[in-house]
Write a structure and sequence with these properties.
With 165 residues, the chain is an alpha+beta fold. The protein contains 6 helices and 5 strands. The protein starts with a helix and ends in an 11-residue tail after the last helix. The structure holds tetrahydrodeoxyuridine.
């Protein structure tokens, strides 16, 4: 699968984010070693602490379906209120200052203003199942504008299964 396809799946998952409190929608698409994809969105709660991040939704969906070998994850996030502005300015002009890199309407819609790095808890959950040296984390703000990190860069000197098992 191309990186842009995985990112698009993350954007599609973000559309299902349940974010009535923060209005910050996150989507993740996790690719398994055998090429399957599990997506996830963040799901908030009136009691706040039960809120779960998009990345953990995706990872827990995969593990609960029997997959524990992962290649990479694409993550996108941003305030859902700015989505409406982006769409309306695309409607008006077909372009938008923030989206000069976007050639097409599709690329304009599948975009967010900033990269969304995974929180510390999600990095720790990744370290449980993923090889920090090889697992890739794609932080995207459009289908073409993204950065790729290895887990070991985002969670150096991690405490993981190797410390206990
Ligand atoms: N969030 C994620 O889904 N993933 C992250 O890595 C960062 C934060 C969610 C949690 C909460 O619903 C909202 O973003 C604001 O923190």
């Amino acid at each position: 699968m191309q990186e842009s396809e995985l990112i698009k799946l993350a954007y599609e998952a973000r559309q299902r984010a349940y974010v009535p409190y923060s209005h910050f929608g996150v989507g993740a698409a996790l690719e398994t070693a055998d090429g399957r994809v599990f997506s996830g969105c963040n799901i908030e709660n009136a009691s706040y602490t039960p809120t779960v991040c998009a990345e953990r939704t995706a990872i827990f969906k995969a593990v609960s379906e029997g997959c524990r070998q992962f290649r990479r994850i694409a993550i996108v996030g941003g305030c859902v209120k700015t989505d409406a502005q982006a769409y309306s300015s695309v409607d008006r002009t077909g372009r938008d200052d923030r989206r000069q890199a976007a050639d097409t309407m599709e690329e304009s819609i599948f975009s967010t203003p900033d990269y969304c790095p995974p929180c510390g808890v999600c990095r720790q959950v990744m370290a449980e199942f993923c090889d920090p040296k090889t697992f890739e984390i794609l932080l995207a703000r459009s289908l073409r504008d993204y950065k790729v990190y290895r887990l070991e860069e985002l969670l150096p000197l991690n405490f993981g299964p190797g410390d206990l098992l």
